[in-house]
Design brief:
The chain is mainly α. The protein has helices spanning 3-11, 37-47, 54-63, 66-75, 79-82, 89-103, 110-124, 129-136, 146-161, and strands at residues 19-24, 29-34. It folds into two domains: 3-106, DNA polymerase, domain 1; 109-161. A two-stranded antiparallel sheet has the order 1-2.
């Protein structure tokens, strides 16, 4: 399960329903659970990339929200995947190359350029890339100007540190 799914499962009182992927190998069997069908479908897409197994796919999905990962791949940004332990630059490039056409191109995600600018601004202010990426998913999409997005990110980050 992704960290978000695991925390959601812990908060749920009673029964939960999951979309599952059953990985069967010669020496092991593993079951991976997802709250949303889109997460399972993205997981299965990652598995089609040579060199990406179930654990690597789950690690990639744990780096950022699904929508952010889709945008990053569509925009050709390999940096999200290279932050995952065990995923090198070549494998990250392979993920982008294999999945870009299936997820859309950079032209379909014009806001990705603005997000990259926000990330760079936050990094230059001393925030680490992981923290900056995490806050991006909480910025309302109505804020389209980079400076407004940076201000909102700083407001959210200062609230988190209080």
């Amino acid at each position: 399960m992704t960290p978000e799914a695991l925390s959601e499962a812990k908060r749920a009182a009673g029964e939960i329903s999951l979309w599952t992927y059953h990985a069967i190998r010669e020496e092991s069997q593993e079951l991976f659970g997802f709250f949303k069908k889109e997460e399972l479908e993205f997981f299965e897409l990652l598995l089609k990339v040579p060199g990406v197994g179930p654990k690597s796919a789950l690690s990639i999905m744990s780096v950022a929200p699904l929508v952010t990962l889709r945008r990053a791949i569509g925009a050709g940004d390999v940096s999200y995947m290279t932050k995952v332990s065990g995923i090198g630059k070549k494998t990250a490039e392979k993920v982008v190359l294999e999945l870009r056409d299936k997820l859309g191109s950079a032209e379909e995600y014009p806001e990705m350029k603005g997000d990259l600018d926000v990330l760079e601004a936050l990094k230059s202010l001393g925030y680490d890339r992981h923290e900056a990426r995490k806050v991006l998913s909480h910025i309302p999409q109505e804020l389209t100007q980079t400076n407004d997005r940076v201000k909102e990110a700083l407001r959210l980050l200062s609230k988190n540190h209080s």
